[in-house]
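Much of what follows relies on a compact textual record of a protein's fold. The record below shows the convention in full:
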Amino acid sequence: MRDSKQALLSYINCSFRDDLYYVLALNLLKMGEDIKNLTIDKVAQSCFVSPSTVSRFCRNLGFSNFIEFKEGFDQHTIITNYSKSFLNNIQENPKEAALAHWSDINSLTENQIQSLDLVKVDHILSKIHEKENVVFLGNQFLHFYGSYFQQNLQYFNKTTYSFFQDVDQVSFLTKTTAPTYVIIFSLGGTYLNNNSQMVDVLRKDNIETIVFTQNEHSALINFCDDAFVLEGNNTNDIGKYSLLFLIDMMVMRYGLLYSNPTLA
């Protein structure tokens, strides 16, 4: 299930203050989880817009309807990504917990390095270099990993895409006829869950897909044309650090392979 709060934050981060939807997004964020108990008519009345405007905005954010948008407010807080023992340790001995957490991150990253398939990495980089369009997809925090990858590739004159809004992602991928490489970051392998519209778009003949995930049993692996399975698991939310390390390494290698940068 998509997180409605994150979808609203993404919208206001890339919109203008004089936009009707911008004001609506701010009002919806201020209403918070109270929305779960309100009808679309009541929400519209509170935001001084029509119910049809609320409905259109929900679809614009990538939700099927207002009901699905409301359900997206029923998300657990980020603290549930961590084990009870880890949280207890953070409360009782923060420094010890932080050191243990760092040790887990370091071990995971080291295992990723030891098992790294450089041939596969270079194959992925060749796809990024050759394809006319490269699009990064990911939910919530992992979306920003795509933007980070995008920004760094631009230093080597490779223009790629990382759209904030689902509607823009779907629109671009629907309209493009050029060879397109879609890179999905989904540690849990659930990116396409409840996203039938994106599933249909990614089946286009001109689109080639790869998923980066830690879930070797994810249905995404069979759905996509290729997969990069990262080491370990996402216990206490450590998987994102290993992925970020991999992205940094891939960016540097891309520059060395395809840009011939001047080394200091």
